[in-house]
């Protein structure tokens, strides 16, 4: 089996009976804030795109690059489609010209032509990607690969039971806006960032230890930030709170915990994989490349500047009545929302500036009033969540009828945020679901989740607790760590106060726990 690195979470898997291209991403994503690093735009995409199968793990725009898919990827390819609750991924791929689909069943092995076997595990909670994330398992001639990309399964048992895995590809770096965009003192922001960075690595080590593959490939990150306004997010300043460590940092940290089987794929790197071992060739020296990271970024920044400028020029639509259009789009969804509206529990304020981000003069302030089920002008009331961003960005979201502000505005990091109290997942879940189909799915998921009775227990230290995390049902017998009276679920870093059962990370999600008699 041959694995060709094609950048970020993308790779091409070649066997003697078929080839699979995974998650090709080349064009900037999220309001031109994210770019693949190392740069993969100069690869021979005409050749790389001539494949038998296409796998797009989910709709995050650093995995689903519509322009690139339309231009370079063969429409003769059969799409390996995850089993998602909505049809959006299939619909968007059909709009790009793809006509052949294998609609897989989650956790079921499918045999393709020539004996090539694949299995896709779909994760379908409202917090998994844009209503769905997935992992791809591939087997041919006794060699097995798991492309986990940036999915977060509660465990990897399903894959391990299919046989020993020879190559494990997984995310290790940040793909979020926290804590960089929050209006916090620098010291607090650094401390929270370091916690986030450490949790990312801890989760990665746990996954690696669970699967025990022969070889580990760090993928799906980090992006690079080439706009001057976002340049500080690149991990080139020695900031221990930066959540975007690169592959060379992964290799260094992995070595500290005894890891010796890591393989870095640059765009154009090729690994020849067998059940006996792996041999990798690179287009350039890997260590030297990352030693000169800032120089590479500076060169990319100069080369990509016209692309960023063109993107920014397309955002402004001053003719749009932002308040009126948001009322028209959001108020019907508020009327239908039960669980997410109750979960948010109060008004959320948006301040719009006259620039392309959170700086500049505020020209309009509105409130999405979840209890009142309305969108209205801000009335000087106290709010627990506040976002500040450029009015032009919201004009553009309205202009393109974007139904997912998480997969556009928030991941762009072109905003600032402030909150009083705990993180509230329902805020972001709602703004991911600005369409009838997504809202109905998410409400149904929360309804089923809230009504589920978690009867099975596990023992952690001096405590008996419910086995499944109240957040997304991770197995706490594997991911739970108790320190005194605090339980941490390492899968997503959520914390719980065991004596009271109260979630310390977010609103709601109380855990059932009892002190074990000694």
TrEMBL record:
<keyword id="KW-0408">Iron</keyword>
<dbReference type="Pfam" id="PF25451">
    <property type="entry name" value="SCP2_Rv3818"/>
</dbReference>
<dbReference type="InterPro" id="IPR036866">
    <property type="entry name" value="RibonucZ/Hydroxyglut_hydro"/>
</dbReference>
<dbReference type="InterPro" id="IPR017941">
    <property type="entry name" value="Rieske_2Fe-2S"/>
</dbReference>
<feature type="domain" description="Rieske">
    <location>
        <begin position="465"/>
        <end position="518"/>
    </location>
</feature>
<dbReference type="InterPro" id="IPR057330">
    <property type="entry name" value="SCP2_Rv3818"/>
</dbReference>
<keyword id="KW-0479">Metal-binding</keyword>
<keyword id="KW-0001">2Fe-2S</keyword>
<keyword id="KW-0411">Iron-sulfur</keyword>
<protein>
    <submittedName>
        <fullName>Rieske 2Fe-2S domain-containing protein</fullName>
    </submittedName>
</protein>
<dbReference type="Pfam" id="PF00355">
    <property type="entry name" value="Rieske"/>
</dbReference>
<dbReference type="InterPro" id="IPR036922">
    <property type="entry name" value="Rieske_2Fe-2S_sf"/>
</dbReference>
């Amino acid at each position: 089996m041959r694995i060709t690195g094609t950048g970020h979470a993308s790779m091409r898997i070649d066997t003697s009976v078929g080839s699979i291209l995974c998650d090709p991403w080349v064009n900037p994503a999220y309001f031109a804030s994210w770019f693949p690093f190392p740069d993969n735009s100069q690869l021979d995409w005409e050749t790389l795109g001539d494949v038998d199968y296409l796998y797009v793990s989910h709709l995050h725009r650093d995995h689903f690059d519509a322009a690139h898919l339309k231009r370079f990827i063969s429409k003769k390819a059969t799409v390996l489609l995850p089993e998602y609750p909505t049809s959006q991924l299939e619909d968007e791929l059909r709009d790009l010209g793809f006509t052949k689909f294998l609609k897989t069943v989650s956790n079921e092995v499918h045999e393709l032509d020539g004996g090539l076997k694949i299995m896709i595990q779909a994760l379908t909670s409202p917090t998994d990607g844009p209503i769905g994330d997935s992992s791809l398992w591939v087997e041919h001639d006794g060699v097995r690969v798991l492309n986990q990309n940036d999915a977060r399964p509660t465990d990897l048992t399903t894959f391990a039971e299919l046989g020993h895995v020879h190559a494990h590809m997984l995310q290790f770096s940040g793909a979020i806006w926290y804590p960089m965009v929050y209006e916090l003192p620098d010291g607090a922001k650094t401390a929270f960032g370091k916690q986030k960075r450490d949790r990312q690595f801890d989760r990665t080590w746990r996954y690696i230890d669970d699967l025990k593959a022969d070889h580990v490939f760090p993928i799906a990150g980090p992006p690079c930030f080439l706009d001057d306004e976002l340049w500080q997010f690149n991990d080139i300043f020695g900031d221990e709170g930066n959540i975007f460590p690169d592959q060379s940092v992964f290799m260094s940290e992995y070595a500290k915990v005894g890891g010796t089987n890591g393989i870095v794929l640059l765009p154009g790197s090729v690994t020849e994989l067998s059940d006996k071992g792996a041999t990798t060739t690179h287009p350039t020296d890997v260590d030297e490349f990352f030693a000169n990271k800032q120089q590479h970024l500076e060169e990319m920044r100069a080369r990509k500047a016209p692309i960023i400028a063109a993107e920014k020029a397309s955002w402004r639509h001053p003719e749009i009545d932002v308040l009126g259009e948001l009322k028209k789009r959001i108020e019907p969804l508020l009327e239908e929302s039960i669980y997410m509206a109750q979960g948010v529990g109060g008004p959320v304020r948006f301040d719009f500036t006259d620039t392309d981000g959170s700086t500049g003069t505020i020209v309009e302030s509105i409130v999405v009033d979840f209890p009142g089920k309305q969108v209205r002008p801000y009335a000087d009331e106290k709010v627990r969540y506040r976002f500040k961003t450029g009015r032009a960005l919201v004009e553009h979201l309205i202009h393109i009828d974007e139904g997912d502000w998480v997969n556009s505005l928030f991941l762009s990091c072109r905003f600032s945020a402030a909150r009083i109290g705990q993180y509230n997942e329902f805020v972001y879940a709602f703004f991911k679901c600005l369409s009838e189909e997504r809202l109905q799915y998410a409400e149904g998921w929360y309804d089923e989740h809230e009504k589920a009775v978690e009867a099975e227990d596990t023992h952690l230290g001096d405590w008996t607790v419910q086995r499944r995390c109240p957040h997304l049902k991770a197995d706490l017998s594997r991911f739970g760590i108790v320190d005194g009276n605090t339980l941490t679920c390492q899968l997503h870093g959520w914390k719980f106060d065991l004596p009271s059962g109260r979630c310390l990370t977010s609103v709601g999600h109380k855990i059932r726990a009892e002190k074990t008699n000694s």
